[in-house]
UniProtKB/TrEMBL annotation:
SMART domains: EAL (SM00052). This is EAL domain-containing protein. It comes from the Bacteria. PANTHER family: CYCLIC DI-GMP PHOSPHODIESTERASE PDEF, SIGNALING PROTEIN. Pfam families: EAL. Residues 196-446 form the EAL domain. SUPFAM superfamilies: EAL domain-like. InterPro entries: Cyclic-di-GMP_PDE-like (IPR050706), EAL_dom (IPR001633), EAL_sf (IPR035919).
Length: 460
């Protein structure tokens, strides 16, 4: 045994005497204790609500076209552990953060405690948002230090409660943790378990009763400061595992219910738009499988017939790059049939993977929505600014409008002004909210003035 190996072994042995709280981030494999389980047991013992976040790296390629191997996975693991340890501590305080660890080559768990309203039976919305912010930061931070992460992998997040009822029944913490982790993994991968069967029953019930609601996030014109349009965002029942869209749409896709869900969302969205007398463009997320559905165009037409104040020219159908298109030529023909009726198209998540440029080149969208992974900290990373500039230039040559998504900081907005990006969307401008009537939009006047002021400062 070399001196270096001996020193590392002594360091590991010394950690065995540290308090659990000092070992809550990727602890060594001790045989005598498991610090994270001990900390979880303490939180549950105090009657606190605990939650498990499963962050999972998934390959962007099907098995036949995967380009990464064992060494790539090792580099991804090392970069991920460093980023998650740093970012989780930034997002959650010492009291909230129970611990984090890695399970398998691509699965990372974060345990947190949070206040839960008695009326909420799953993950509180406020906590979900914080866990999503952590996911975006985790994905972007890892990609910034490991370029192949953005090229080959995408990060998903699945969030579930650690059952306090099971703990009250005097269950072992290790068993309870395993059951919670297995449930999160089953939701993330579509594995069939008793919990997933129950979740499918709940989803069937939600769709049968139409218990879907919609919110809207404004898309701001960065030249005038006015609201250009609205992206419609979907929510399931408030106290359900399917409240937030990631879980709702992922599970619907796994259950072969995606088109049924999207038909319902379109109907609800157009009902809301008509009732609020919205006259700006409206962006509706639609997957390629639903666009290709033989009844989807008829469904849209029926919805418009119910609301004469709306027109096809007002609707922009967003196609996300996170859903694969197997035949671009056939999809292009489908889009042309919709364009004949007046509908327009946007490519969503541009810049998040290899297929962006091919999609844009062959489908010729009217708008390009740049993925938040490009926009996040674009002021700090020259490579991101170069990618953004290239997309804006290409869009100009194709006569496409550009929307920058996920704008959260003033410094990011300033880059958009400097590069003459035409539109922006994100928390910096406004969070998703219920649709507003025209007379309720005074709240956007302050934002308009801010956009005009910052644009003027950047230009000078």
């Amino acid at each position: 045994m070399t001196a270096t190996m001996l020193l590392e072994r002594l360091k590991t042995m010394a950690k065995a005497f540290l308090p659990d709280r000092r070992l809550n981030a990727f602890p060594p494999d001790f045989t005598i204790r498991r610090p994270i389980l001990s900390l979880l047991r303490q939180c549950l013992g105090r009657g606190e609500a605990c939650f498990l976040a499963l962050y999972r790296w998934e390959s962007k390629f099907d098995p036949e076209h995967r380009k990464h191997g064992r060494e790539d996975e090792k580099r991804l693991s090392a970069a991920s552990r460093r980023q998650l340890a740093l970012l989780a501590r930034e997002q959650f305080g010492k009291r909230e953060l129970i611990g984090m660890d890695q399970y398998g080559p691509q699965d990372y768990v974060v345990l947190v405690s949070a206040t839960q309203d008695p009326d909420e039976s799953f993950v509180p919305v406020s906590l979900f948002r914080r866990l999503e912010l952590l996911r975006h930061a985790f994905e972007g931070g890892t990609a910034a230090v490991l370029s192949e992460a953005a090229e080959q992998w995408q990060l998903t997040g699945t969030y579930v409660p650690v059952s306090s009822a099971s703990w009250a029944a005097d269950r072992d913490a290790a068993t309870l943790f395993k059951e919670t982790f297995d449930f999160a993994l089953a939701l993330a991968t579509g594995a069939v378990t008793p919990q997933v069967i129950e979740a499918r029953r709940q989803l069937d019930e939600i769709l049968a009763e139409g218990r879907i609601s919609v919110l809207a996030q404004p898309i701001m014109d960065l030249r005038s400061g006015d609201v250009y349009g609205w992206e419609i965002l979907t929510r399931g029942p408030a106290a359900s595992v399917f409240h937030m869209p990631d879980e709702l749409f992922r599970f619907a896709g796994q259950s072969k219910l995606l088109s049924k869900l999207e038909f319902i969302v379109v109907r609800h969205a157009l009902d809301e738009i008509a009732s609020r007398r919205i006259c700006e463009p409206v962006f509706l997320n639609v997957t390629p499988v639903t666009l290709a559905h033989p009844l989807f165009m008829a469904h849209l037409e029926q919805c418009l017939e119910r609301h004469p104040s709306l027109s096809a020219g007002q609707i922009v159908l967003e196609i996300t790059e996170r859903h694969e298109i197997h035949d671009l030529s056939e999809m292009s023909r489908i889009l042309d049939r919709f364009r004949e009726k007046g509908y327009r198209f946007a490519i969503d998540d541009a810049g998040s993977g290899y297929s962006s440029l091919q999609w844009i080149g062959e489908l010729m969208p009217e708008l390009i929505k740049i993925d938040r992974s490009v926009i996040q900290f674009v002021d700090r990373y020259k490579v991101k600014e170069s990618l953004l500039r290239a997309i804006v230039t290409a869009a100009g040559e194709m006569s496409c409008d550009v929307v920058a998504e996920g704008v959260e900081r003033e410094e990011e907005a300033d880059v958009l002004f400097r590069l003459n990006v035409s539109m922006g969307q994100g928390y910096y401008f406004a969070r998703p909210n219920p649709l507003l009537h025209e007379h309720e939009r005074g709240i956007f006047q302050e934002m308009k003035e801010r956009i005009q002021s910052r644009r003027g400062l950047v230009a000078s």
